[in-house]
Amino acid sequence: MAASMTRVWQMAPSLVQCRSLHITLGLEKAKTGAEQLWLTRQQRDPYVKAAHAQNFRCRSAFKLLEIDKEHKILRPGHHVIDCGAAPGAWSQVLVDKVNSLEQDPAASVGFVLGVDLLHITPLDGVVFLSKCDLTVPATQEKIINLLPCGQADVILSDMAPNASGIRELDHQRLISICLSLLDFSETVLRTGGSFLCKLWDGGESNLIRDRLRQRFHYVKTVKPKASRTESAEIYLLAKLHKDTTYK
Questions:
Q1: Which segments of the chain belong to CATH 3.40.50.150?
Q2: Phi, psi at residue 80, to the nearest 5°?
């Protein structure tokens, strides 16, 4: 699995990350019609504006906030792995949710570990592994060594390969990434823990759902309002990781 996944990542050497929120149409004209459409959409996007206002690095922060508000997967004291963390918006949410900076001295103190193939600007309350491939055993060993007691309460993944424009190929690449992460979760995720991964919905989505149902007591498909309506993006949420020690 590790070898095949390395080939997948070589085909898509960097994760899709949010583009800069600093858009000034008066200073920079779009060179193509597609760029102009993207800039116009960003200008009108209420989540982009809210991200500016609340100092989030990316609008995707609101996806995690919405999912957690409805499903209660994060709490103070949790140890969390943020996979595909760049540019760091989910990690910003996690710092507050798990109390990793001991903002609340009366609550348990959590731990946040972010991993990405890209560089991630440092963030107080988070340990980042930049330019690291999660599918490589050496990276997985680093994660285990950095996690308190070598285990996580929650694994979150917003990872995705760069889109090729071929929908089925992109879908299969993301399925392979999720399968690799799910295999790794068996090593680090505590019994009772939670797992959340992004998919581009397609023909093999049920493969991930079936694997999750084997390993968790609760599995649900979620699409937060902050996910654009036209996007094939969905999230699979799994809670209550089963004890697989003797299986």
A1: 2-15+58-241
A2: -125, 140
d(CA 177, CA 182): 9
* pLDDT < 70 stretches in the chain: 1-44, 244-247
Whether 239 is a known active-site residue: answer: no
Asked if 243 and 193 touch (Cβ cutoff 8 Å), the reply is no
Residue-wise pLDDT for 126-177, tens only, equals: 999 999 999 899 999 999 999 999 999 999 999 988 888 888 899 999 999 9
Distance between CA atoms of residues 92 and 163, nearest Å: 25
CATH code, 2-15+58-241: 3.40.50.150
Catalytic choice (97, 198, 223, 239): 198
Contact 88, 126 (CB under 8 A): yes
Listed in order, strand segments (DSSP E) in 127-175 are: 127-129, 152-157
Q: Is the dihedral of CA 19, 177, 226, 33 positive or negative?
A: positive
